[in-house]
């Protein structure tokens, strides 16, 4: 049982980090690199313990833990370690006749003391990515991981003080009262990854101190199927993405839009994919399938399925006490269905038959912008039509989810799916103040 | 003949909001031809109405025509031209560098418009601070609602007349009004809010943006300090500072707010100020030839005069004001013997007062600056490289401009913005375009990549697990 940080400790945590920041300790590149190296080792040295923690909290199979979370996190820290010199260098502004004599430059300065609040679904990757960016940018950091993952929270509480400098990086554990207390302070930046509902609360608190906030939220990421695509490949990739982490991924393919007369073909292929994933037809017994994070979340998703008016292709069962929701696909789903009202965040895939791509586009445009939009097609015109006539955080063709793991690509939302980016230099920039300087000559 | 300002009826706002969103969704702003055409129209609006704009600014602020032309009109035309020239480059998708294992993913970053922008602008530079951000929004492919300040009513009224004539009204609208109209506007959802103004209202805007988790740019202000070091040409220093202070009677976000001067050079510096004053205003600031502006409103004039009344410092130069039929003018006023707890040091002055604080060391100068919230800009006047480094390393601010004041806002290649209480977000030139754009990542992973992807599929076997571990077991560092 992870110990929650006493509320009375929080004022001192904040002021200690502020004091340390003022000493300039986090600014030298050598210090930042040393901390980043420690961050990577913290994961690598205890990789099994982190994987066990993910298994305990999320039922995550070891393979998924390593592939989806721990290895990409180490890669982020390593990427920052290798590039921080470059990223932190003062930039010279573009040469112009009028201004160059005044030496216009852009210094990359740390913002100061930052707060990172992360969710339960990828408690390692979503935390480490931001922490590594914040440290690379020279900040002091408070990490507030999700209390819904107690094993992981304990690991942070134990390992962060051992590997990172407690004068510049602290872990705070707890639930709502602890977060509310943290939000009373004038952070220099807050990163919040989670739900839109809580994001509003975070932003409202931040507004009082004029604290800039980066939000990574979610939404219903739609999948467009072009009937002439490689259906077998599409079905396999989509089902893989849907079932990764038991569907609890902010960019999980939420629902599928397929032309009516291609629905059966798609359904047949997704059944085939299901049979290859679970050859004995029993996902509940498979060690290749995660669980929902809590019984409450399992109940939430079970209700979507129970109330759905779609036809079950496979799945539909649940065991809430085990936090188990069966991989479920529903066809002939309509827009007013129970599965279409909120982000599902579970291993349930509604298929909505549409007349054509135009109808699919207008369905998506009537809804809030999602974090990601997926298209399966070989036709560049189809792809362009869908991308050009919609808005979303990312626009991905012929794959799902994996773009988040590519360092160097800005991952971020638009509208209700959030604002700001993470990964690589984009993450570094989030935590950096670009301080412009001019040095005017005497004439 | 300038019209009187008409406030937009509150019940018109939902229709305006719906119209702009509908236009954006129709995709018409995506066309680069359309954007260029709107930018040309915007430039034309300024070129064809320069006199009318100067006249409105004269009525609003008694802004001298030279300042209006230089700072409010000509800059926009230049901006529009620059955006037109750069549009292809700005909008061209970027192919970023990715790891070799992802080389076949066709990773691309598309710079797409965020949607419909809400642009709220202040009274001190009403034209440039409304239309320069708008030019960036147009270039980015956004639609926008403009809410200029009602305090500069003649400008706002002229804008309401000109904008529908030059820009496409299905994509761009002006809303005029005061607090109720702004509040109603912020009850609707926008895709980005760009606010330039004061820190108190900045918090209100941030709270409103939080309701929809709307991304926000806050260009606020603060007390931008000047530090005068030893070893400078005090006449040149005085000239650059006083000139900067007099722009718009100090009503400028990057106005040099107060001066911290080293004791040893204070007398020479004050003499320099006297000499500059005489050159700037040979017949005094209120003489018609001086072309010296007024304080924007009675409320602000009262705020400033109360502040001056309450100072415990000594008025060295200036101090007088005159009541005109259209407002109040206050002389550029230099006040010495000012301490940190003075009435002049509690908030951004935003007026023609220059308090002088004397210190004995650079340490004291730096700690004085650090006592106050982070300003938009710090102006050190020094030729000593070590002093420059110390100031850069030991203070924090939006920007730093050595050896001159105010010129920093003219740069179009620097990301201009604040820190802490002076705001967040950046703009100018390409940075404005980026502020109103979303970086939309795209990948397209061909079937031929399946061999690399195969290990992720179920059933998870020991073989697949071992393969994944092998991938990760490469040396960590180096």
Give the quaternary arrangement of the chains. heterodimer
Strand tally of chain B is: 17
Helix/strand/pairing category of chain A: alpha/beta
Helix content of chain B: 40-55%
**Can you count the helices of chain A?**
14
- Helices of chain B, by number, come to 16
Weakly predicted, low-confidence segments of chain B: none
Question: Given the C-alpha coordinates, what overall shape of chain A results?
Answer: globular
Rg over alpha carbons of chain A: 23 Å
C-alpha end-to-end distance of chain B: 72 Å
Average pLDDT rating of chain A: 94
- Walk across the major sheet of chain A and give the strand order: 10-13-14-9-8-15-16
The largest chain-to-chain contact, stated as pair and per-chain residue counts, equals: A-B, 97 and 89 residues
- Unreliably modeled segments of chain A: none
Major sheet characteristics of chain B: 7 strands, mixed
What share of residues are in beta strands of chain A?
15-25%
Q: Tell me the span between the first and last alpha carbons of chain A.
A: 68 Å
Strand content of chain B: 15-25%
Shape category of chain B: globular
Helix content of chain A: 40-55%
How is the largest sheet of chain B built, in terms of strand order? 9-12-13-8-7-14-15
């Amino acid at each position: 049982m992870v110990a929650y940080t006493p509320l009375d400790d929080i004022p001192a945590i904040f002021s200690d980090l502020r004091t340390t920041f003022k000493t300039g300790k986090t600014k030298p590149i050598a210090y930042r690199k040393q901390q980043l190296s420690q961050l990577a080792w913290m994961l690598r040295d205890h990789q099994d313990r982190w994987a066990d923690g993910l298994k305990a909290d999320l039922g995550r199979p070891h393979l998924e833990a390593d592939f989806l979370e721990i290895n990409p996190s180490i890669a982020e820290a390593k990427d920052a370690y290798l590039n921080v010199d470059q990223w932190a260098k003062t930039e010279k502004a573009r040469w112009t006749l009028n201004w160059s004599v005044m030496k216009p430059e852009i210094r990359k300065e740390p913002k100061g003391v930052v707060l990172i609040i992360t969710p339960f679904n990828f408690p390692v990757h979503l935390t480490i990515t931001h922490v590594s960016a914040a440290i690379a940018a020279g900040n002091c950091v408070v990490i507030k991981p999700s209390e819904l993952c107690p094993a992981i929270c304990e690991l942070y509480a134990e390992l962060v003080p051992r590997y990172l400098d407690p004068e510049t990086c602290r872990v705070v554990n707890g639930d709502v009262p602890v977060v509310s207390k943290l939000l009373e302070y004038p952070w220099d930046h807050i990163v919040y990854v989670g739900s839109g509902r809580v994001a509003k609360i975070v932003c409202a608190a931040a507004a009082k101190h004029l604290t800039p906030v980066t939000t990574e939220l979610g939404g219903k990421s739609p999948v467009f199927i072009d009937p002439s695509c490689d259906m077998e490949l599409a079905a396999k990739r989509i089902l893989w993405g849907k079932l990764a982490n038991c569907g609890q991924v902010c960019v999980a393919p939420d629902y599928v839009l397929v032309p009516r007369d291609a629905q059966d073909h798609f359904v047949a292929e997704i059944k085939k994919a299901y049979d290859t994933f679970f050859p004995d037809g029993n996902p509940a017994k498979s060690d290749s399938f995660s669980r929902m994070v809590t019984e409450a979340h399992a109940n939430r998703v079970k209700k979507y399925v129970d109330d759905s008016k779609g036809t079950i292709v496979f799945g539909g069962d649940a065991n809430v006490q085990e936090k188990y929701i069966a991989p479920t696909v529903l066809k002939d789903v309509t827009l007013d269905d129970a599965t279409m009202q909120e982000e599902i965040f579970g291993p349930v895939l509604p298929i909505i038959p549409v007349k054509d791509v135009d109808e699919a586009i207008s369905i998506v445009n009537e809804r809030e912008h999602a974090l990601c939009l997926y298209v399966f097609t070989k036709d560049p015109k189809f792809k362009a039509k869908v991308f050009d006539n919609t808005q979303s955080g990312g626009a991905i063709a012929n794959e799902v989810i994996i773009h988040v793991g590519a360092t160097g690509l800005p991952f971020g939302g638009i509208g209700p799916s959030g604002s700001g980016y993470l990964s690589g230099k984009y993450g570094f920039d989030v935590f950096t103040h670009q301080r412009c300087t001019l040095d005017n000559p005497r004439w | 003949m300038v019209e009187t300002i008409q406030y937009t009826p509150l019940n018109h706002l939902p229709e305006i909001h719906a119209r702009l969103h509908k236009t954006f969704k129709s995709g018409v702003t995506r066309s680069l031809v359309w954007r260029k055409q709107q930018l040309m129209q915007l430039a034309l609006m300024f070129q064809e109405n320069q006199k009318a704009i100067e006249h409105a600014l004269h009525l609003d602020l008694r802004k001298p025509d030279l300042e209006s032309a230089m700072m409010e009109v000509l800059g926009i035309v230049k901006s529009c031209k620059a955006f037109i020239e750069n549009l292809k480059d700005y909008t061209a998708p970027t192919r970023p560098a990715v790891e070799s294992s992802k080389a076949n993913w066709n990773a691309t970053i598309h710079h797409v418009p965020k949607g419909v922008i809400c642009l709220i602008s202040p009274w001190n530079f009403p034209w440039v601070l409304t239309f320069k951000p708008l030019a960036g929004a147009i270039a980015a492919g956004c639609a926008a609602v403009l809410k200029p300040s009602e305090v500069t009513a003649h400008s706002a009224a002229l804008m309401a007349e000109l904008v529908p004539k030059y820009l496409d009204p299905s994509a761009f609208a002006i809303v005029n009004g005061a607090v109720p109209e702004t509040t109603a506007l912020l009850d609707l959802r926008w895709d980005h809010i760009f606010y330039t103004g004061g820190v108190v209202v900045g918090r209100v805007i941030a709270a409103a943006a939080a309701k929809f988790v709307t991304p926000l740019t806050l260009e606020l202000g603060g007390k931008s300090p000047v530090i005068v070091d030893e070893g400078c040409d005090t006449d040149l220093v005085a000239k650059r500072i006083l000139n900067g202070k007099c722009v718009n009677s100090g009503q400028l976000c990057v106005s040099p707010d107060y001066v911290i001067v080293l004791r040893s050079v204070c007398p020479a510096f004050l003499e320099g100020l006297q000499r500059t004053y005489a050159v700037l205003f040979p017949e005094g600031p209120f003489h018609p030839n001086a072309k010296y502006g007024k304080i924007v409103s009675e409320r602000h004039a009262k705020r400033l005069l109360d502040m001056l009344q309450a100072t415990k410092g000594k008025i060295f130069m200036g101090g007088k004001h005159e009541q005109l039929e259209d407002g109040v003018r206050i002389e550029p006023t230099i006040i010495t013997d000012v301490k940190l707890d003075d009435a002049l040091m509690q908030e951004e002055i935003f007026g023609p007062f220059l308090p002088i604080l004397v210190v004995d060391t650079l340490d004291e100068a730096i700690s004085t600056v650090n006592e106050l919230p982070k300003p938009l800009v710090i102006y050190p006047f020094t030729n000593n490289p070590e002093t420059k480094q110390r100031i850069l390393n030991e203070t924090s601010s939006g920007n730093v401009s050595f050896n001159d004041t105010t010129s920093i806002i003219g740069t179009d290649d620097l990301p201009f913005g604040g820190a802490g209480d002076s705001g967040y977000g950046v703009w100018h030139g390409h940075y404005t375009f980026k502020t109103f754009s979303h970086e939309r990542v795209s990948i397209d992973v061909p079937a031929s990549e399946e061999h690399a992807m195969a290990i992720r599929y179920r059933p998870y076997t020991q073989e697949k697990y071992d393969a994944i571990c092998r991938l990760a077991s490469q040396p960590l560092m180096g």
